[in-house]
Specification:
heterodimer; A: 14 helices; 13 strands; elongated; B: 7 helices
């Protein structure tokens, strides 16, 4: 710690250069925070799915349907516990920009399969008795200021009833989850009402999701199901929910890979810039460094002093950059929670960012630090 | 008087391509404790090389260098660094102060290598600055001081850890006549009143007059020029 003052003062030697270097690192870490949050938002579904949940979709595409009867047949397979199914409704509220996910489901079956969702019993009871009832996640309710008892008109872009795209639902409950990363920005309404009212596609469901007793048997159960529906009009593809979530995300492209490539390019460039700046800074101070060695600073102290400078620059840039991105992500997440519900800057990302900053500082400072360590006093002083 | 430093059969040469360039040849020298020795000679005669060998900044190609009972030519790099921190103070022609530190912080630098607390380091730095007559300049940066004052700060930095030996390389080379006299007077006081052994390289005969004796180096060999 006694060297900290000295290290700090050295950073102030060329204020403009130090500021520009810190700014460039800061920008890199803002990008890390923003893109990392985006990556997290796209993969959050894949991260938090249940290990014992499987999903069956139409083999050709997720957007093609399958008969409702498949759900009952899957329920009879040994090892299968609870079975639910869902239809994508594709509606918006009042204005097209107010998009969010709505699923037509069987209430009890859905909440059995998604046991992490919490809905107060009296609200559940009300929903069971109300055919046009719906329950909404707490994030969605907060977004539009909805409360229990509200009537909400939705315009479906896919489904009509009696020739009309406009549907009306009553909010019977608001569900939540203990794990804050679980998506609560969607709406669930009753399949029986939906199926009866819709103009086309009756008896057809979008996908089936079910739980099994033993996650180790997932591959065997999936094969059994897909074999069962081979050569039927709607052949199926069954996979774990994680694989399903990942393939869903990959419809948008491999976000993780894209983000990783961008960040690697940014950090590599910044590393070259910072490393060069540190090297230049050390070259300019060779006589001073030689004087320090002359008065007794050892080789490893010299190495540590230069590395400490590089680390301090990297940590300053990283801390400010991570702070800015945390605030920015919070603001962006609030503004687009309907489109990207999982957008968040987590403490784990912050800790990982600091880890990268330390690594960044050590790498940027390594060559100049070795140069300072190996400095020959007699040669360096004779240059003066 | 006991010898503080003994050099025996010291050689120093550099390789220049396939050739060896001899800087010092078969050099024997004894420096008694409390001596004030001026080393003179033309450029390239090996004065600074000899000073570097005495201060453990460089290693001889042959022979032995013993200072304060330590064979410093046999010490490791880290051993040499520790030895320099405890036993030698250096004063350079161009002061070589850290421009980003105040006078007090510059003087404190060698004490960072000790276990002293910040308060103790500060106290000692202020005492050293008082000894060189700069008690009222502790918070000044080098750029706010004259050349002579900067050299005084450099001398304070050299004596703050109370070394046995002060090595000065052209300490007045960058100063005007009056300031040079002040600095030489200060070194004389440190030698006479504080018992510091001083070895000084200089081109300036007037500066050399302050020394107790002067040795002349020519082509790597020593000649006694004058004795006090």
């Amino acid at each position: 710690m006694k060297y900290l003052y000295f290290v700090w003062k050295n950073l102030g030697r060329k204020k403009v250069r130090t500021t520009l270097t810190i700014l460039s690192i800061l920008v890199a870490f803002i990008l890390y925070g923003l893109l990392g949050s985006l990556k997290l938002a796209f993969t959050v579904g894949a991260d938090i799915v249940g290990a014992n949940r499987l999903v069956t979709i139409n083999k050709i595409s997720l957007i093609l349907s399958q008969p409702e009867s498949y759900a009952a047949r899957i329920a009879q397979i040994e090892g299968v516990k609870d079975v639910a199914h869902a239809n994508w409704f594709g509606a918006y509220y009042q204005d097209k920009k107010n998009q969010f996910a709505q699923f037509a489901v069987n209430p009890d079956a859905w909440f059995n399969v998604y046991s992490e969702l919490i809905l107060p019993e009296e609200q559940f009871k009300a929903w069971r008795q109300d055919r046009i009832g719906a329950v909404v996640g707490e994030k969605l309710a907060a977004r539009f200021g909805w409360k229990v008892g509200d009537r909400i008109p939705l315009i479906s872009t896919i489904h009509r009833h009696g020739g009309d795209y406009r549907w009306e639902f009553v909010i019977d409950g608001i569900f939540s989850a203990e794990n804050k990363r679980v998506d609560t920005s969607n709406m669930l309404f009753r399949y029986d009402y939906f199926d009866e009212a819709r103009d086309w596609g009756k008896g057809e469901i979008g996908w089936i999701v079910f739980t099994i007793d033993d996650p180790a048997r997932a591959a065997g159960v999936a094969k059994q199901i897909d074999d069962m529906f081979t050569n039927s009009p709607a052949e199926t593809r069954t996979s774990t929910e994680q694989a399903f979530a990942e393939s869903f995300v990959k419809q948008f492209g491999d976000i993780g890979l894209i983000v990783s490539l961008i960040l690697t390019a940014v950090f590599f460039t910044m590393l070259l810039v910072s490393g060069n700046t540190m090297a230049q800074s050390v070259r300019e101070r060779i006589p001073e460094l030689a004087v320090l060695k002359t008065i007794g600073f050892g080789d490893f102290t010299m190495l540590a002093l230069v590395l400490a400078e590089a680390l301090l620059i990297a940590l300053l840039g990283a801390l400010i950059g991570l702070g800015v991105s945390a605030v920015a992500v919070q603001g962006i997440a609030a503004a687009i929670s309907g489109f990207l519900p999982g957008l968040a800057f987590t403490p784990a990302m912050f800790a990982q960012g600091l880890g990268y900053a330390v690594l960044f500082g050590l790498l940027a400072g390594l060559m100049p630090a070795l140069q300072a360590m190996r400095l020959s006093i007699a040669n360096a002083l004779s240059r003066h | 008087m006991t010898a503080l430093a003994r050099l025996h059969g010291v050689e120093k040469f550099y390789a220049k391509g396939s050739q060896k360039v001899h800087v010092l040849s078969e050099l024997d020298l004894e420096i008694p404790s409390g001596d004030f020795l001026a080393l003179m000679g033309p450029s390239g005669s090996g004065k600074t090389t000899l000073l570097n060998l005495l201060g453990g900044l460089d290693r001889p190609s042959g022979g032995s260098v013993e200072v304060g009972g330590h064979r410093i030519d046999q010490l490791s790099n880290s051993g040499l660094a520790k030895w320099r921190a405890r036993h030698v103070g250096f004063v350079f022609q161009f002061y070589n102060l850290m421009p980003v530190l105040t006078a007090e912080r510059n003087v404190e630098l060698p004490l960072l290598l000790t276990r002293l607390s910040r308060a103790q380091r500060r106290e000692r730095a202020q005492i050293a600055l008082s000894v060189v007559g700069l008690a009222d300049r502790v918070t000044h940066y080098p750029s706010e001081l004259s050349g002579g004052q900067q050299q005084r700060v450099a001398i304070a930095r050299a004596i703050v850890s109370d070394p046995d030996l002060l090595l000065c390389d052209e300490p007045t080379g960058d100063l005007d006549r009056d300031t040079a006299d002040e600095i030489m007077g200060l070194l004389q006081v440190l030698n006479r009143d504080h018992g510091k052994t001083i070895v000084m390289v200089t081109h300036d005969p007037r500066a050399a007059e302050y020394a107790k004796r002067t040795l002349n180096l020519d082509k790597g060999r020593l000649n006694l020029k004058a004795a006090a």
